[in-house]
Amino acid sequence: MKIATIGTGPIVDKFLSALNEIEEATCEAIYSRKEETAKPLAEKFNVQTIYTDLDKLYADPNVNFVYIASPNSLHYDQAYQALQNGKNVICEKPFTSTVQELESLISLAKQKNLLLFEAITTIHLPNYQLIKENINKLGQIKFIQCNYSQYSSKYNALLRGETPNVFNPKFSGGALTDINIYNLHFVMNLFGTPQTVQYKANKHPNGIDTSGILLLEYPNFIGECVGCKDTNSLNFVLIQGEKGYLHVEHGANGCRKVILHLEDKEVELNAQTEMNALYYEMLAFNKIYQSKDLKKCYELLDYSHSVIQVLEAARKDAGITFDADLLEIKSS
């Protein structure tokens, strides 16, 4: 994997740190609108090429993967252009702003026999796999609670009257797409698409959600997903069954500590040795790339598509509109 990155935020630093642990993967280039914002990352990770022109990045013959970590609303166009130029794509969550955008990308990727991945750490974590292997011990599931709340460093700016990207409908921001999506992936990768979806949100006057509760109704149980960027909380997941419960400490995004409670027994489940959660998704993506397993990639895309459908339905249930809802979709 010869990767170029788009974006210079903290997640890119974390991504490049994970990439350093993957033997067959290298970072060939970093893109930023301004060279000076890319320089610290390039120097830290010994990357020789910096681009300030995306067309030049897409044309680079040394690059066969593009990792996209730009504001949410830019994901679709940047991924589309990368695919059009024959590059495989890893795109940060949320994959796209709308279902239509993702369907366009999936169609183009398949047309060109390219790999397209959503970078959602949770579903690739070893401890998440342990949850899947042990969840049947809980008996009939009756209730799930997820809370992932993190007071945003940008929230004070919002209170001052500014509009940071993460709280801007123009950039497809908000608590649901930025933070509650981890909870949604946690539940849906275990149990599939819910029968009904409701989203109740605390909204800023600009229409964006700063926090909210997502209710997922399944045939035999209810899932409750809380995501807040305007407050902190004790982050956790609780899966409650008739024979016991499973507790994920610190929230769905890292699955750092998993405790299985059965009657009077308590068992800790742990198979994670790496602190950087992005390492495990990169391990999975590299394995698919090295084995040329397009089938596995497209299975993941089908799953991501189902998540984006629920995400969009939840957003619309709360009356949250993005600028992207009105944009014309490209034809592949």
From TrEMBL:
Residues 136-246 form the GFO/IDH/MocA-like oxidoreductase domain. One of its GO terms (molecular function) is nucleotide binding. Gene3D superfamilies: Dihydrodipicolinate Reductase, domain 2, NAD(P)-binding Rossmann-like Domain. InterPro entries: Gfo/Idh/MocA-like_OxRdtase_N (IPR000683), GFO_IDH_MocA-like_dom (IPR055170), NAD(P)-bd_dom_sf (IPR036291). Residues 2-117 form the Gfo/Idh/MocA-like oxidoreductase N-terminal domain. It holds the Pfam family GFO_IDH_MocA_C3. PANTHER family: PTHR43054, SCYLLO-INOSITOL 2-DEHYDROGENASE (NADP(+)) IOLU. This is Oxidoreductase. It comes from Anaerobacillus alkalidiazotrophicus.
